[in-house]
């Protein structure tokens, strides 16, 4: 299973970005998907997760109301729509997948079987 994240870039405070994560291999609809982010010297931070059908989502308090996670099972792709970006959102963003019959919040990266390379998001003030 491979995950390919893209869509990062350099934006200004208040701008929007949409990250994409294409998953190849396995059965996409069986994966719980998550987004995490990391800044230098820090541990991975949970951002958002989504269940198999997209009907259940969880968010970190720091992004709730600004970020939206969704998925397209027909295209094997997960998305993270980021609006009203702030400088503190600057990080490398990673997507992760877990093939599991149990739907929980999946807030910890250790709960995921697969993780892709990151995409850099930089928000200037």
Structure summary:
By secondary structure, this protein is an all-beta fold. It has strands spanning 2-6, 9-12, 17-24, 31-38, 45-50, 57-59, 67-72, 77-82, 91-99, 114-115, 119-124.
Task: Write up what this structure looks like.
With 125 residues, the protein is mainly beta. The model has no long low-confidence stretch (mean pLDDT 96). The chain has no helices and eleven strands. Strand 5 and strand 6 form a beta hairpin. Helix content is 0%, strand content 50%. The strands form two sheets. Strands 2, 4, 5, 6, 9, 10 and 11 form a seven-stranded mixed β-sheet that branches. The chain has a four-stranded antiparallel β-sheet with strand order 1-3-8-7, with no helix packed on it.
Q: How many distinct beta strands?
A: 11
Rounded mean pLDDT is 96
What fraction strand?
A: over 45%
Number of helices: 0
The helicity comes to under 10%
Describe the structure using short key phrases:
mainly beta, seven-stranded mixed sheet, 11 strands
What order do the helices and strands come in, and which of them pair?
Layout: E1 2-6, E2 9-12, E3 17-24, E4 31-38, E5 45-50, E6 57-59, E7 67-72, E8 77-82, E9 91-99, E10 114-115, E11 119-124
Parallel strand pairs: 2-11
Antiparallel strand pairs: 1-3, 3-8, 4-5, 4-9, 5-6, 7-8, 9-10, 9-11
